[in-house]
Amino acid sequence: MRAEDLLFPTKAGLYCPEGDFHIDPLQPVPRALITHAHSDHARMGHGAVMATRETLDIMRLRMGEGFAGTTEIAGAETRIGGVSVGFHPAGHVLGSSQISVTAVNGPRIVVSGDYSRHPNPTCAPFVPVACDVFVTEATFGLPVFNFPDPATEIARLLASMAEFPDRPHLIGAYALGKAQHLIALVRAAGHDAPIAIHGALKTLCDYYQDCGVPLGELIPATADQVPAQLVIAPPSAFASPWVQRFRDPVIGFASGWMAVRARARQRGAELPLVISDHVDWLALTGTLTELSPSEVWVTHGTEDGVIRWCELAQIAARPLRLVGYEDEAE
């Protein structure tokens, strides 16, 4: 069997006819396998959903109990129709997985979803899986994206807090994954004081802590006088009246996109923090070198740059050009 017959793009998303399922479909389908719970990968309305326990829990928290007809917790290896399916840690957010699809006497395709190679204290690390075809994201698929060590960015944040002790530091971080990652990094750097969080973050922060991810003391950023210098909120909150309760704040955002100065200026970020839960250029190309697949399929970002690198590395590559995927987490 050819790889392109085992898994191929349709209007609804990547489809496997041998198992009659889609991976991260954009539209409601009879059966969906979900890599992680960000809304550009996890949609509601499917007949049946298979994912890790954490991903199913988070989908339920975000979408409600009836987000799918039925759900099934993914095992390490599962037989679906004529293929074997595996879920392998992706290192992106809690519960995130790569999904491997292997045909009998045929190729193995690994769909990475979103992934990161940098240690993240809030989720299981990426596990390299040998494969014939690797489907990679390309969110930051250009050489300009060379992310610093997150610890150095946290050191910048703490230095700013020490320099301006009377100014609240408001940091924008996406509600699922990035906010918890940022909090965990701040705690690892020795900041034990209470951290204030916007109400939109509470449910997921509580869930992370229930799963054994220590985030320390978190207090609501709802009162007129918030007794914490560090305040974390979703980026959308910075366009609402909520932000006006803080006097002379230091505004910052935690995102891989903060590596682009124009993006930082557009957001009005006085303190841009380059912290990402995705691979940068070196980690992406390093992963392709490590896995050495026969073919690379590229999606979800800057496809052309990655495909050009593959050509120079003499690896067959092609764009999937899936329409509708955006980077929700950054």
Write up what this structure looks like:
The chain is α/β, with parallel strands linked by helices and 330 residues long. It has two domains: 3-144 and 278-319, Metallo-beta-lactamase, Chain A (4-Layer Sandwich), CATH 3.60.15.10; 150-273, Rossmann fold, CATH 3.40.50. It is built from eight helices and 19 strands. The chain has helices at 3-6, 53-63, 150-163, 178-188, 199-210, 261-267, 281-291, 303-312; strands spanning 8-9, 14-16, 21-23, 31-33, 46-51, 68-73, 77-80, 83-89, 97-103, 108-111, 133-138, 169-172, 195-197, 218-220, 230-233, 250-254, 271-273, 295-301, 316-319. Strands 7-8-9-10-11-18-19 form a seven-stranded mixed β-sheet, with helices on one face. It has a six-stranded mixed β-sheet with strand order 1-2-3-4-5-6. A six-stranded parallel β-sheet has the order 14-13-15-12-16-17. A hairpin with a 4-residue loop joins strand 9 and strand 10 (108-111). It is globular and about 65 Å long. The two termini are 37 Å apart. 47% of the residues are buried.
Task: Describe how the helices and strands are arranged.
Elements: H1 3-6, E1 8-9, E2 14-16, E3 21-23, E4 31-33, E5 46-51, H2 53-63, E6 68-73, E7 77-80, E8 83-89, E9 97-103, E10 108-111, E11 133-138, H3 150-163, E12 169-172, H4 178-188, E13 195-197, H5 199-210, E14 218-220, E15 230-233, E16 250-254, H6 261-267, E17 271-273, H7 281-291, E18 295-301, H8 303-312, E19 316-319
Parallel strand pairs: 3-4, 4-5, 5-6, 10-11, 11-18, 12-15, 12-16, 13-14, 13-15, 16-17, 18-19
Antiparallel strand pairs: 1-2, 2-3, 7-8, 8-9, 9-10
